[in-house]
Amino acid sequence: MGIFGQKDLPPAIQTDSTAQENLPHLTELAIECLSNGDKGFFLMVENEDIDESFHRRNIPQALYATRDLDLAVATAIKVLKKKGQLQETLLLVTADHDTGGLALNAPLFPHTSLWNSQHVIHQTTGLFRNRNQNLAKLSNDRINYKGPALPKAPHTATDVDLYAKGPGSEKVRGVLENTDIYQIMHQAMGLDGETVR
User: How far apart are CA 43 and CA 102, in angstroms?
Assistant: First the structure.
């Protein structure tokens, strides 16, 4: 077990994923630790800030958090490849649910929609270029935002994406029930026919 702070670690938008305890680095440490055994391992990596940011409709923070998770996946692939374990490892990337129903298109009813699309698009344009200048401007935009007051964005029933790489990834096709993901992992771990409690 690793405890790296007395409260939540700073979000990726504040650190640009370069803090010592950033998600890609922690992913690398976890793989280095877990891959020393000869029975394989299971690792779940999550960036909870994606969900929290979308609840607050903080699009820049949500995008940085998503990028942070993407960097963690890339790091996992790099480390597993270096250790010669990539071909025997199943990687799954998904979400437990959607939050807020964000879509980058014009809403039918701009003043009653879940998101104010022009505000969203304005915030996301050029986000990762000239980072400090953009963050200062985005912060100022949020302070001066004159749009309608909106409640906390809820979870939605929207289907989420599922990406897979490695042995068992051929089973990830079309629309799946969420419990199918469990079965795919179960089989990848060589547990067919065993009862898992």
Answer: 28
Q: Answer yes or no: are the C-beta atoms of 12 and 67 closer than 8 Å.
A: yes
Query: And the tokens for 87?
Result: 């071909």
- Per-residue pLDDT reduced to its tens digit, 87-122: 999 999 999 999 988 776 554 444 444 444 444 444
Cβ burial of 184 (10 Å; 0-12, 13-18, 19+) is: buried
The structure's pTM equals: 0.77
Instruction: Tell me the pLDDT tens digit for each residue of 132-142.
Output: 555 545 544 54
Tokens of 14: 């504040």
Full set of structural domains in the chain with CATH: 12-103+110-188 (3.40.720.10)
Alpha-carbon gap, residue 102 to 117, rounded angstroms: 9
Token readout for 128 is 């990762």
